[in-house]
Design a protein that fits this description.
By secondary structure, the chain is α+β, with helices and mostly antiparallel strands. It is 32% helix and 20% strand. The protein has three helices and two strands, in the order H-E-E-H-H. The protein has helices at 10-16, 56-61, 64-74; strands at residues 27-33, 47-54. The protein has a two-stranded parallel sheet.
Length: 75
């Protein structure tokens, strides 16, 4: 459920406390404004890319810039 993604939830605390190897290889992609994830859910020490888009669904299902970022990272 959406409550599991709230800051301080048991799921987010579990993820926060994981011993993540090679954190510098992880990239977090966030929207300039995301009404569902207002804090951006960024892992500390991970690379951050902000896509100039407003809206959670626009970030991951409707924006060519998001797919360009993922394509560039994968290539």
């Amino acid at each position: 459920s959406g409550r599991e993604l709230l800051p301080g939830s048991s799921l987010t605390l579990k993820i926060k406390n994981m011993d993540i190897k090679n954190i510098e290889k992880i990239t977090c992609i966030k929207a300039k404004f995301d009404e569902m994830v207002p804090n951006g859910a960024i892992l500390p020490h991970a690379k951050l890319i902000t896509v100039n888009i407003f809206g959670h669904n626009n970030l991951h299902i409707r924006n060519k810039n998001t797919y360009k970022v993922i394509s560039n990272l994968a290539s």
